Amino acid sequence: MTSTVAPTDQHSMVGVLSQPSEPTSKEKLKRFAKKYFLEGQKFTNEEKREPVIPPDADSLQRFTLKHRKLLAFVIPPAFMWTWWWMYAIGNNIFPLYATRFSMPITMFFGAFIGGMTCEGGGAVAFPVMTLFLHINPTVARDFALMIQSCGMTSAAFTILYMGVALEWHSIVFCTIGATIGIIFGIEVVDPAMSKEQKKMFFVSIWSAFACALFLLNTQRKRRTYLTIQMFCWWKGLILLLTGFFGGILTSFAGTGVCICSFSVLTLVFSINEKIATQTSILLIASNAMTGFFWRAKIIHGISELAWEYWKCTVPVVVVMGPLGAFVGSHVHRQTLAWAVYILEAIALVSGFVIVKPSLILSLVCVGIIVGGFFFFFILSRVGRYLLSTYPDAKKPTTALPTNNSNCCNDVAS
């Protein structure tokens, strides 16, 4: 007897077969890693993402074009290590490692985080030195400026060599403002602050910045850009003032212009976070070199302790800074955001536990955090208003980011 299958059973079987299978744990993990750690870079010109090798190029040109990313990572440490080894051997600095090993270990992670995020290596060096190692904030500030002049400069070279997209209006105007701000801060603001104030203001201001980042990530399906739209004189003035206040923060904490620039670019001008981060790295590199020069050559005020820490840490940061910049240019913006959240939470809690500030100073710090949150909230509202004034305000925001135009539409997740 020939068996038959009822039509309803056939349809049910087809339905079962056509249903998509549930992804396995391994597939979910791969999707997660690809989304948050392998998102990909944004380049100045997407068409130049893959290098075009001229037919008549010689072997050296072919090599440099084909291995652009590798060279971007290798050249800074190769140059800095050559210089450092000649100096280290000539001056026999190796015995210093017996007592100064703490900062090379710290900056192994600090330079990587500084290159990957918009905070700079000083965001790790300053709290570790002042809160955990109980080093004078002035020494910590000087060391942060000195080490960032190597690590963040190396990271900046990596970014420039790879041709990663940057916001050049911010680089120009914020650098001018930050140069004035850091000199004013070193001469006027820093001497007027106590050690406890420097430590607690640092963790409070950076916690307020974490609030700004949180506000940014609450904006779903927001439209972002590669450059500031409809640039004019008052936008340049905003960037100039941003750099000035960032320079003042750098004058007592060793870093600051980076987070000021990042906040204004993303919240007010709707610049893509990854571009704002890469732009901030160039800014802190420039500002750190200015502060280093001013303290070392104009004031001659850098202590021997800061010099010893710097000599021992240079070979570490010139590798980890570019590596952080390379990794940061690939990962998802939420990954960078969570890195900042965790860092600032640890710094804030450690500050209150270790410093044990007075009631008045504690209230001031809470006021800085709360006031900073509302200040950044106002900035985000200003940014939303400016978005409505741009020519493409009525365009749909459903597409994924594109790199061959000034606009890219972010789909937050």
Automatic annotation (TrEMBL):
One GO cellular component this record assigns the protein to is: membrane
An example of a Pfam family matching this protein is: TauE
Region of interest (Disordered), ranges: 1-26
* InterPro entries recorded: TM_pro_TauE-like (IPR002781)
Mark out the compositionally biased spans (Polar residues): 1-11
Instruction: Just give the chief location class.
Output: membrane
Q: Which UniProt keywords apply?
A: Membrane, Transmembrane, Transmembrane helix
Query: Lineage, please?
Result: Eukaryota, Metazoa, Ecdysozoa, Nematoda, Chromadorea
Protein name stated in the entry: Uncharacterized protein
Query: Any keyword Membrane?
Result: yes
Transmembrane residue ranges: 70-87, 107-133, 145-164, 170-189, 201-218, 238-269, 281-302, 308-328, 335-354, 360-379
Subcellular compartments:
Membrane
Membrane topology reported for the UniProt record: Multi-pass membrane protein
Q: Which organism is it from?
A: Plectus sambesii
